[in-house]
Amino acid sequence: MESNGMPTKRPGGRPPGRAAYVATLLAAVAGAVVWALASAPAFAAPPASGPAVQGDPPACQDADAWRAALAQRPDAVQQADALLALTRPACIDPTLAPAARMALDAWRADLLDRPWPHGYDALPAATKARLHLRRAGVWASRAQQLALAGRPVRAAAERAQAELDSVRRANLGVDDRAELVEAVMLVEAARRGAERAETLARASARGLRLVVHAGAQPGQTCVLLFAAEAPEGAAGVAAKAPERLAERCTTGRVWPHSAALQPASQTLSITVQAPDGRAEVWLFRADGAAAAAPRGRLVSPWRVDVLPGDAAVAPVLAQWQGGR
To answer: Where are the alpha helices (DSSP H) in the chain?
Structure first.
């Protein structure tokens, strides 16, 4: 009802329509809260990443700004820039405990799998290549962390390989080489982790056994190669202690599941994350005397060669020149 053109108040002093207005406002607030809760995992702070240890420190200190950018519903280009910035490998503390690194890699994987707005197909080819490369490295790292935890790794290893297979090397720049080398090493290590049982069987057949154990110094991990041949002699004769062939220690992180045996030689390789965070390959190999020994007999001394990333993946990259 109206009187003199003015709305008539209802009992209680509230103008008509206020209840509907409040209901609409509450619905809008609830919708915003629901959207924020649904989006929060994609741009919330990671579980732990540690301080910047490589690269340009300011680039690693802009994480809050990039997370804020993701919260504003960016377009495809802005989202790609934010995802690549927030998942930089150089901004991860290499001394993170395994559980913390596993949680961080899970967060990075979820972030990179965030749904895309319209415009992804129009992204520059170089940006798409970098996204695939970053996902390859993240999923390979996840495979390693799962292996260390005794959990199945095949799905993560296959995802890492699929992402690497999607990279067109021609679309990568000179500045991307370091990450490419690292990703190739990690994906190869993850693949070997998925085939660990077969690797152990082949090594045992050749009389080799690799043991990873804590070193004498705090935080040190050592890799020891034994001769695991069956003892010779009549039944009932006490077996002699396994022969120690070679050993090397590090304060970095050893990936036991990455061990691989070269089928044509007495060489066993294993991937190690050095203290500075870069991956390298240790090659346990017999010297000339051992290589010339009769098949089935292992002769010391052995040596351990350390290959940096570039040298370790050079054969793979050489075959990859025109492939993808």
So the answer is: 18-43, 57-60, 63-71, 76-86, 98-112, 125-148, 154-165, 177-194, 196-205, 288-291, 309-319
Token output for 148 = 């260390």
Counts for the chain of helices (H) and strands (E), in that order = 11, 9
Task: Looking at mean pLDDT, say which of 53-57, 80-84, 117-121, 306-310 comes out highest.
Answer: 80-84
For residue 245, how far is the Cα from the chain centroid? 31
Question: Residue 232: pLDDT band by 50, 70, 90 thresholds?
Answer: very low
Quote the DSSP letter at residue 277: S
* pLDDT, average across residues 281-285: 88
CA 153 to chain centre: 12
C-alpha–C-alpha distance, residues 86 and 102, integer Å: 16
Q: 281 φ, ψ to 5°? A: -120, 130
Q: Are 275 and 94 in contact (CB under 8 A)?
A: yes
Residues 6 or more apart whose Cβ sits within 8 Å of residue 89: 137, 179, 182, 277
Structure tokens at 235: 């039944």
Neighbours of 59 (CB within 10 A): 13
Helix pair 125-148, 76-86: axis angle to 10 deg = 40
- Report which residue type is found at 291: A
Phi and psi at residue 279, to the nearest 5°: -85, 145
Rounded-to-10 torsion of CA 157, 162, 166, 169: 40
Tokens of 307: 């290959």
Quickly tell me which residue has 């054969």 as its tokens: 315
Residues 128-177 pLDDT 10s: 999 999 999 999 999 888 887 888 888 999 999 999 999 988 899 989 98
Backbone angles phi, psi at 89, to 5 degrees: -65, -30
Please name which of 56, 60, 51 lies closest in space to residue 93, comparing C-alpha atoms: 51
Cα–Cα distance between 257 and 254 in angstroms, integer?
9
Res 215 pLDDT > 90: no
Indicate if the pLDDT at residue 9 is higher than 60: no
Name 108's bridge partners: none
